[in-house]
Amino acid sequence: MKFIAEINVMPLKEILDPQGKAVAGSMKNLGLSNIKNIRIGKHITLELEAENEPAARESVEQACKQLLANLIMESYEYTLEAV
User: Fold this and answer.
1) What is the DSSP string of 32-52?
2) Residue 77 burial (CB < 10 Å; 0-12/13-18/19+)?
3) SS3 call for 10
4) Stretch 6-25: mean pLDDT, rounded?
């Protein structure tokens, strides 16, 4: 079976996000001072083949834990859809 995983990786709330802070500062310069607390992460889409959904989920979990997210500083969540 073929699956598509949509993965969001975000910095942990306890971790400073300098990129988000810089963007928040730029919002003020654009007259958008009502926008605050910006956090910037990454979105990853991947396609995979697996025997079934549990096997696909295991592959996505391994990819996230071993390569796509730094679990010391980031969290992740994903959706998985059969195609």
Assistant:
1) -TT-------EEEEEEEE-SS
2) exposed
3) strand
4) 95
